[in-house]
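Hi P.,

Sorry for the delay on this. The queue was packed all week, but I finally got your sequence through. Input first:
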Amino acid sequence: MTARTPPATAVTGIGLVTAAGIGADATWQGVCAGRSAAARNPLLAGLPVDISCTVPGFSPREHVGRRSSLTHDRFIQLSITAAREAVADSGLDPKTWDGARVGVVVGCGLGGVATWETQHQRMLRQGPQAVSALLIPMLVPNMVAGHLAMDLRAKGPNLVTATACASGATAIGTALQLLRDGSCDVVIAGGGEAGVSPLMVTGFAQMGALSTRLDEPSAASRPFDADRDGFVIGEGSGMLVLEREADARARGAHVRAKVAGYGASADAHHMTAPDPEGTGVVQALRMALAAADVMPDEVEHVNAHGTSTPLNDAAEARALRKVLGQGAAVTSAKGVIGHTLGAAGAIEAALTVLTVEHGTVPPTANLQRLDPGIELDVVAGSPRRCGVEVAVTNSFGFGGQNAVLVLTAA
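Then the structure:
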């Protein structure tokens, strides 16, 4: 480690709520099984695309309580559930910690869109008096961090990052900075999104981003496959508890992995399409590796953004090949859990921690024939057992926003 390299940040807790299951163990098992959670959704009946990946069996009243089930939008409910799991996993107790030293940073791209749609319809049908007084606090994205702070007694910096589908990874990168500059001793960082709504799905469908393989939903999302035609929208939340490694070791915490580096960039190319050469991704990758003091040939695994869209997968593959070569085992979780938008980067960071911890790379679901233009070692079919000391996870968003995290073994 060079003198300029800041100390790594420890991951001491993980929480996950995805279409593969509620809880980190359920999600990990589902992703390793490689079975897509995509299915027809009655809420979307009659729309151009009517498939999605939704969290199975999620009862707001059971998971967040009766009051919050009525006053919080679903994206907040999912995030609270994941954050509580992460904090419990860390061994920290919100009743006894110094809340002024605990920060919350959450990535979210859309906010309470389901609430917005429901209340807008009420106004159109019943008039202004039918609109809930809770519309605004249920809708605005910053309330996810606000409610986490209230729920966990966290009184430190409280932020929401919005870099589209890179939001969750940006949140974790921001958390690193808060820990390194001494603003916090603990940060709950991650992402939450519940964008499976008629208007949002129609909007993505109209721009051609979604798969139209509607007769076979479970085969629709197929990252890096030659026949990919778009993503399947999903929902969920991923949360990490982050601490300075020295602090975590001092209290005897179980360090699950370390976040060693972060890089961010902008394509400055197009409002939705990636730079086809992946120039901005290359910049963010190199920045993250330099911050972690890691050489490209040391990277053994990449949890790719891998959306299953033709342009994105091709551009990401070019960037990875240029920086890392073909040595790293690559996977994408979106074939199983769909694209969770602003939560994706955090969910995939948590999955990368689990990959490092278990020494197992999950398969890329539905990858039957690798696109011949993608010159990467993409894991398919079944999980691959391999020791992983250094891993990278990529996240990209509309507007050309790129975020890359480097994670290392504990």
